[in-house]
Specification:
- The complex is a heterodimer of chains A (325) and B (279).
- Chain A has 325 residues and is mainly α.
- Chain A has two domains: 2-80, no CATH class; 89-324, MetI-like fold, CATH 1.10.3720.10.
- Helices cover 75% and strands 1% of the residues of chain A.
- Chain A has 15 helices and two strands.
- Chain A has helices at 2-10, 13-40, 45-71, 89-96, 98-129, 134-144, 151-161, 168-175, 190-215, 219-227, 232-243, 245-260, 264-269, 281-291, 296-324; strands spanning 74-75, 84-85.
- A two-stranded antiparallel ribbon of chain A has the order 1-2.
- In chain A, strand 1 and strand 2 form a beta hairpin.
- Chain B folds into two domains: 2-60, no CATH class; 62-274, Orthogonal Bundle (MetI-like fold), CATH 1.10.3720.10.
- Chain B has helices at residues 2-37, 42-45, 60-68, 71-102, 108-120, 123-136, 143-147, 154-165, 169-177, 182-193, 195-211, 214-219, 228-237, 243-274.
- In chain B, helix 3 (60-68) crosses helix 14 and helix 9 packs antiparallel against helix 10.
- The relative contact order of chain B is 0.14.
- The chains are: A mainly alpha (325), B mainly alpha (279).
- Chains A and B meet through helix 3, helix 5, helix 6, helix 7 and helix 9 of A and helix 1, helix 4, helix 5, helix 6 and helix 10 of B.
Chain lengths: 325, 279
């Protein structure tokens, strides 16, 4: 057998017969191997490492964003069976939709209440709890507690504590002679109630970020200020505040964007009521898209408008921040 | 001089301490009240004047919760959602962070820009088309739709990138000389070096998906697919609400996160402070 094979090879048969095929095969193998090898190399493997995240981000972030812009020109029902191009009609509707205009107003009020408290209140509190002693660590641990809690639990909790009849806090206030305040059903008051709960929930994050920033301020700056006879207040104003400017801007921008997207707490406590006085833009988008009528195109239009508002605010703040530095 | 200064400091310190204590009480008292109320019977919850300390402890609320909603199913779904999302998120986001931190390759800038751009896009803005994508892919009302869109997160990628960027290059070179594959270098040498960031990411991801309300509401509305957060929210949204049962449910949703917080407070704080913040 082996003899025969040897003869076969000697005669050059094998080579002659299979040359074209083999060459092709070899080339294929070589290029596939090369490609395979490349993706195993230090450089090429980067693409393999990135592949899952890029695919996921494209499919579930970038494409939906582009779709949001696209859909805003269509009339699309929930089943998606049909999509009718209607141009800018959705946008025209949006700006004459009093419920949408109202939702923008409500969102602006939320933002106006929440952002200053988060940006300045948290900064002041952070300044008092920045030193690493046991008492401050304890306060920090407590203040951060609401951050880890679900909006669902927080909503259930506050709804009952501020309940108009049997609420614990309502009762405490009434014993002080303030009467029974209707925290969740008052067209003037309820928006403050919801804003309070929203601040209660995320105050801890802002405070902790400020604490980290304050701890990183160069201590020699304080020493120098002390030498100049600066008291605690002057040290705070002249050393701490200028040193943590980047953090200040970071919190301002993220809180602004966050407040403009308020949803969870509204949904859990008032769901927009009473009489739409707490219906934020996202709450309205949600109800338009997923509960009544399912107008996906129109809901996308509203999202796009909100996105543009968020972008404009962010860009303006970014410019301000860069101009300052 | 020194004495007068320290006296001044104490005098100033007292009102500050009082304010800080009041703020702490504003956090603690409501949470404590919720925990205690979960053990009060319905009659006591609705009594006037309201009580803070329960007159008698009862577990009927928990039984009521189990009777009114499929709480076991909701817990199971929450565990699957948080567990699988976190597991995959740690792998996918670490891999991407590793590539951005340690590798030079063509198109890095473009990939980086795509990743960065997604950070600017609020979830609330893309939720409607995202729902349509998931719906069209046949992933509506199942675990795939719940989990897959939530795996890749730009913030987590940048957090891991920062962690990997600090490692010495010799580590990598030594492993390469030892003949480890590129994935082996990542998985067996580099990833264990950034353990604390991995723990941060794990804790934040578990917390985020356990508490997530909006996405499960959009994509997992079937009773058998609801997570604890949205199942409970929809239960509370009904008109004929049972307070005791909803308190018990709220406590069940809080407890695992409280335990996680007690075990890993350091990581919570570090992670939130470094990776920026959510909502």
């Amino acid at each position: 057998m082996s003899n025969f094979a040897q003869e076969f090879v000697d005669a050059g048969w094998e080579q002659k017969c299979s040359q074209p095929l083999r060459k092709d095969d070899q080339m294929n193998k070589k290029s596939i191997g090369k490609l395979f090898g490349y993706f195993q190399s230090a450089e090429g493997s980067a693409y393999i490492f990135l592949l899952p995240s890029i695919i996921l981000l494209l499919m579930f972030n970038i494409i939906p964003l582009l779709m949001a812009f696209g859909l805003s020109f269509f009339d699309v029902p929930m089943t998606l069976d049909s999509a009718k191009f209607i141009g800018i009609e959705n946008f025209r509707d949006a700006f004459s939709d009093s419920r949408f205009i109202n939702s923008l107003k409500v969102t602006a009020i939320f933002t106006a209440i929440e952002v200053p408290v988060q940006v300045f209140g948290a900064m002041i509190v952070a300044a008092f709890i920045a030193k690493n002693d046991l008492k401050n660590k304890f306060f920090r641990a407590i203040y951060f507690l609401p951050v880890i809690c679900s909006a669902t639990a927080i909503g259930i909790m506050w709804k009952m504590i501020l309940h108009s009849n049997v609420g614990f806090f309502t009762y405490a206030l009434s014993t002080m002679g303030l009467g029974r305040i209707n925290f969740f059903n008052d067209v003037h008051l309820t928006i403050f109630t919801v804003a309070f709960i929203s601040i209660w929930r995320s105050f801890g994050i802002s405070a902790i970020i400020y604490v980290t920033a304050i701890q990183n301020v160069n201590s020699s700056l304080y020493e120098a200020a002390k030498m100049d006879g600066a008291g605690s207040l002057m040290q705070f104003l002249n050393v701490t505040v200028p040193s943590i400017r980047p953090t200040f801007w970071f919190i301002l921008m993220t809180r602004f964007a966050g407040s403009l997207q308020i949803f969870d707490i509204v949904f859990m406590t008032t769901n927009g009521g009473p009489n739409y006085t707490t219906e934020s833009t996202v709450t309205y988008v949600y109800s338009r898209a997923f509960s009544s009528g399912s107008q996906m195109g129109y809901a996308s239009t509203l999202s796009v408008i909100l996105f543009v508002v968020i972008m404009i605010v962010t860009v303006i703040m970014n410019k301000r921040m860069n101009a300052e530095e | 001089m020194i004495r007068s200064k320290s006296i001044k400091k104490t005098i100033l310190g007292i009102p500050v301490f009082i304010v800080l204590t009041i703020l702490a009480l504003m956090v603690i008292v409501p949470l404590l009240w919720l925990i205690l109320s979960a053990f009060k019977n319905e009659k006591e919850i609705l009594s006037y004047p309201p009580t803070f300390i329960p007159k008698g402890l009862t577990l009927t609320n928990f039984a009521a919760t189990a009777k009114r909603i499929k709480i076991i199913t909701y817990i199971k779904n929450s565990v699957i959602y948080a567990g699988v999302t976190t597991f995959l998120a740690v792998i996918v986001n670490s891999m991407a962070g590793y590539a951005y931190a340690r590798k030079k390759f063509k198109g890095k800038g473009a990939f980086f820009l795509i990743t960065l751009a997604t950070m600017m896009v609020p979830f609330q803005v893309i939720m409607v088309p995202l729902f349509l994508v998931v719906y069209k892919l046949g992933m509506y009302n199942n675990y795939l739709g719940l989990i897959i869109p939530r795996i890749a997160v730009a913030g987590s990628i940048f957090m891991m990138r920062a962690a990997f960027a600090n490692l010495p290059v010799e580590l990598e070179d030594a492993a390469r000389i030892d003949g480890l594959s590129e994935f082996g270098i990542f998985w067996r040498i580099m990833l264990p070096q950034v353990k604390s960031s991995v723990i941060c990411l794990t804790i934040l991801s578990i917390n985020g998906s356990w508490n997530d309300l909006l996405w499960p509401m959009i994509v997992a509305s079937d009773t058998h697919m609801r997570t604890l957060a949205n199942g409970l929210a929809l239960f509370v949204g009904q008109n004929s609400i049972q307070y005791g049962a909803s308190f018990a449910g709220a406590l069940i949703s809080l407890l695992p996160m409280l335990v996680l917080y007690i075990l890993g407070q350091k990581y919570f704080v570090e992670g939130m402070a470094s990776s920026g913040l959510k909502s």
